[in-house]
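By way of example, we now present a protein record of this kind:
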Amino acid sequence: MGTFASHTRTYVLFAVTFVVLASLSIYFYFEQRQQMDLTSRVFVIGAMRLTEVDDRTLDGFKDGLEEMGWQIGKDVVVKDNGAAGSIDRLDAMAAAHVADGVDLIFVSSTPATQAAKRATAGTGIPVVFSPVNDPVGAGVVEDLMRPGGNVTGIKLPLGDDVRLQWLTKIAPKARRVFVPYTVADDSSRLSLSSIRGASVLLGLELVPYPVESTEHARVVASEMPSDVEAVFIPRDSAIEAAVDAFVNEAIRRKIPVSAPSYTQVEAGALYCYGFIHSELGKAGAVLAHKILRGANPATTPVEMGRSLLSLNLRTAKLIGLDIPDSILRQAAKVIR
């Protein structure tokens, strides 16, 4: 009897072991097949941006993909139809990517992300943005930790109020500040809102001016009131694209331009406390990589970019401004 029970237990143990091993073999087989399918197919990514300002963001995105092992043109194709140029063209651009059946859309700027979200509703096509100023406020995600839909990406850190504070340290004589902003851009309006309270505490007078497009911004740059003593460019791709017009006029008047990113400092703005486009693009590539490998955008948290102080000493010299060493030592990038 004892021998029979022993044999029975051995048989049961063998049977259970066999079932477990068989189940694991089947699991790993299909897991391997899935990974082979992911690595053997060619993914198509649609690229969207409002203006050429974000060309470097897209370049950073491509570089980021390649750093993680993707080969552009071989196992991933980035379909780029160029910058939209104006907000009213974004919906058609997004719809074209959806019609082409892209696997993912990489998008820069708040208006472009909103258009991509509208176009991909109900399609399951994931959207990765880099950057958006306020993703929750702009309605592109439900929550930063759990976006809740098909959209996630890189958020800009708060900091326009800090950037305005830097103006009082870098150019302490400037008190009346011209602020062009695009009425139809949520990001632009958020920038303006965030500096209103700070301006009171800092003793600055803001001169807000509504702008309709990049072309209009260029006209506005030459028509700024004669008594403004500084220009503050918000996080607004349309106005950032016109930075050369504001820089040229500001240098003529010998007043500083405060910009949201290093790209505008390279173009002649005096300083920024903001982001580097290529760095944001690479951060977006990390999220795209995860999603193409199976991560769900709905549960992939929005990540935060970082703000850095950058200065252009060539511009400082042209407008007759001396930047003290105590400030230079705090800058991440200095153009000499």
The chain has a mean pLDDT of 90. The longest strand covers residues 43-49.
